[in-house]
Description:
This protein is of the alpha/beta class. It has helices at residues 33-53, 69-82, 108-115, 139-152, 189-195, 214-218, 233-241, 272-275, 287-301, 310-315, 319-325, 328-340, 378-392, 411-423, 429-440, 449-469, 497-510, 527-542, 576-587, 606-623; strands at residues 27-30, 58-62, 89-93, 95-98, 127-128, 158-161, 183-186, 208-211, 223-227, 259-264, 368-373, 396-401, 477-479, 514-518, 552-556, 570-574, 631-638. The protein folds into 3 domains: 27-273, Rossmann fold (3-Layer(aba) Sandwich); 282-340, no CATH class; 368-409 and 456-638, Rossmann fold (3-Layer(aba) Sandwich), CATH 3.40.50. The chain has 20 helices and 17 strands. The structure holds fructose -6-phosphate.
Amino acid sequence: MKLNNTTKIKFKPAGQLEETRFEKIHNVVFNNSNEASITVAHEIAKLIKDKAKENKPCVLGLATGSSPIRIYEELIRLHKEEGLSFSNVISFNLDEYWSMQSDNLQSYHYFMHEYLFDHIDILPENIHVPDGTVQPDEVNQYCIDYDLKIKSYGGLDFQLLGIGRTGHIGFNEPGSHYNSGTRSITLNHITREDAAPAFLGIKNVPRRAITMGISTIKSAKRIILLGWGANKATVLQKTIEGEITSQIPATYLQNHQNTTFVLDEEASSELTRIKTPWLVTSCVWNDELKKKAIFWLCEKQQKPILKLTDKDFNDNGMSNLLASEGRAYDLNIKIFNALQHTITGWPGGKPNADDSHRPERATPIKKRVIIFSPHPDDDVISMGGTFDRLVEQGHEVHIVYQTSGNIAVSDEEALKFAEVTKSLQIKDLVIDKIINDIKKKTPNQIDTKETRHLKGKIRRAESLAATRFLGLPDKNVHFLDLPFYETGTVKKKNLSDQDITIVKNIIQKIQPHQIYAAGDLADPHGTHKVCLDAIFAAIDVLKPEKFMNNCWVWLYRGAWYEWESHEIDMVVPMSPDQVLKKRLAIFYHQSQKDGVMFQGDDAREFWVRAEDRNRETAKKYHDLGMADYAAMEAFKRYYF
Length: 640
Ligand code: F6R
């Protein structure tokens, strides 16, 4: 499939291979979603201008959700700074919850105005978002009219899409028919779970919606689907490489002649050409690719590294690797050693030991260490075992909690603390106010400042209980309460200089030899990513300072994913006792136990996820031929 020649915008892939025979939809992979979004915005802008030159309207199909936000920001910039006019644009949005008042903060109507329409010169009468208030007996006719209206403008010139983890486009959930028109539908449970954080709980997420149909979408002359982040990788692989099926409605786009999927690296990670390039072409082998291929081969052949044979390599597209390296025997030993050298029980470096094959330096023997934790519990969930070892091995460990984490405390939990405080009969009007505010709160209402303050304090107290349990003095625990987080809603402010300065100041004050940070690159709008961006920006400013020459940065992953084995530069094994100790540390975060507010799509509690994940990492190492440990925490080094 080809790009529309009239668009002229060049999509520049991020250095990966071109599409392969496995792929049935044209797709382009960018280094990151920011670069990709700017390119897409410029294609839209060009279309609007071309149409304007011809004195024609430009009919745009628009999407909501997290994926298109950066595109809308760039379009607004083009309008404000480069005079792009939207006066010839007619817009039709894909969908709206039903029933839903248009002034509800969660409505797509509200979203579109907030993120785009209020900042550009589109004429209000040219905006169409399905009406979430339409009466049940009128909804059928309303939907037919929506499609007719699109047709009356000559059809959609361009349709922007995101993709749900169910494979939905618009709200065409699994089971949708390829020739469906605009209609009311029932939302899939996974989709409702994904929307739950924004609605502060799944119980508040509507069950129904109005959506453009598959045939409505497919009638667009040009379609771009956006895919960002690792949690879209599986569905994108199935959509791009699988058979057309109503169970993954996005696969219907395989039949559309002018569709491009625009992906970031994480979202593309399951595509055959990215995941196992040796199966589709002859590769240029660097060390990381060698490891990746060999670990994959071990899994496929169910063999540890040292048992792989020449035949295993040749049968699985790796004959040119063998040709350049000699025998399987030599290659196996090389990779085996490299993997073994990532294992250490001394995350801060082993004193007085030869460190030439260890992940960390032996000196200085006592290191200053900062562990950044985006929320007040990521430290113990993601690296509780390593944290414990660093303290035990005498390093000066500082825990830095980046955000207050207040929105993740439930009203019931906050009320419990407020009522206990009140029962002490301390005369405090603030407590009365908090109790009143929580009791009067309606669904989706933002907490008052006082309630948020209490919720933040609850998380602080829990964090201190956990850090004390792991032997850390309170003076080494720092709470940054970064301003970008303090909105009281899931939607956060953009990272500001103020946030970066706060992070920079603490690094400068402690002058660490090691920084640990949550390396969650997946979700472009998630708190972890913003917290990481703040650290990277601060490091960038501090780079010229002398102490930074001795500072190594280690990235751990948050609660959801682990590094792939070939990405790991250091693993810290844990004994069964250490696993238990880590579990107890996590337990101190009581407000995040037993049915937490932001559970995600994984029903396991955080401590269970952490243990499963650490056990799996250890098992993977064992399967590759390493010693059999109970659990392991993994880190990747970040070079600046
Ligand atoms: C939005 C829409 C949905 C989203 C999809 C992905 O109007 O129709 O199909 O595009 O759920 O959502 P995000 O972008 O939030 O991952």
